[in-house]
Amino acid sequence: MSAGLADLVARYARKEKRMSGRLHDRVAVVTGGALGIGGGISRRLAAAGAIVVLNDIDADAAEMARAEIDAAGGRCVLVIGDIRDRAVVDRVRDTALSQKDGLVDALVNNVGDFRPAARTFLHSTEEQWQQLYELNLLHVLRMCHTLLPAMIANGSGAVINNATVEAFRGIPYAAPYAAFNAGVVAFTKSLAVDVAQHGIRVNAIAPDLADTPQTPAALMLRGRDPDLIQSWVPLGRFGTPDDYAAVVEFLASDDARFVTGHTIPVDGGTLAASGWYGRADGKGWTNLPTHP
Ligand SMILES: NC(=O)c1ccc[n+]([C@@H]2O[C@H](COP(=O)([O-])OP(=O)(O)OC[C@H]3O[C@@H](n4cnc5c(N)ncnc54)[C@H](O)[C@@H]3O)[C@@H](O)[C@H]2O)c1
Q1: CATH architecture group of domain 3-286
Q2: Active site (annotated) includes residue 177
Q3: Atom of ligand 1 nearest to the CA of 208
Q4: Domain-wise residue ranges, the chain
């Protein structure tokens, strides 16, 4: 078979797969959908047949994601911009609603970041709290507020928020981040109750230890022996973006039709094994067993 024909056959096979995917022809919005967990989510939803409306602040990374989705036979439309910006929220909404007669089937609020923080709470500033609020909670409210009317008009929809295990487990040096993510979890529960009558489900995932640009494996290891990961994570490895995306795909799909108001930890078992521990030498904290 010639290379050109083989490529054509492969493209056809991918299209067939997409058309039989469980999100075939659904319109799915993913914020922060270029890299990391969001990158895994947009690629996975597209592979499941969704028309992905991908928002990201990083234009180059978003373009790369679109090219990959395209090459795999999927569909993706970009909305470049900072989701903290009200005008960007409006552009995401308009782009999503223009895909299929005002329908939007899934909204994945993925953007979030712990980094605008400082050592201890007492060292943190009001400016940092405001940044953490805007990065972790405010845009979640805005995106839901702006897209729920279309879901209500359609009588169906799935919202999936990205929280963190730190909403459930105490974390040193990140109390405001944990608080705003606990807000995401509480919002998820209460909104689910509000909109269930309209056929809309609202759920969340709570990741831990993902190998992403925000928390690269090398940074988490800090030169330590990778074999130690097995003693830190019950399932014995860091998460890949697709580990989280798989759960998001499930929550977005009809397979989760009777699931709403929940936050599913996707953490390789860390929450079950939970605990942050002070280091034996008294210098700082670790959520990892201290080895001699
Ligand atoms: N990495 C982890 O271990 C971990 C653990 C718990 C929770 N989470 C949560 O998962 C989500 C994703 O984390 P990640 O590690 O994949 O992040 P990441 O920083 O690696 O990737 C974030 C993506 O969002 C984009 N982005 C960042 N700010 C944006 C903004 N203001 N507007 C639009 N796009 C923006 C980035 O360009 C990137 O594509 C976050 O909500 C985070 O809090 C991650």
Answers
A1: 3-Layer(aba) Sandwich (3.40)
A2: yes
A3: 5
A4: 3-286
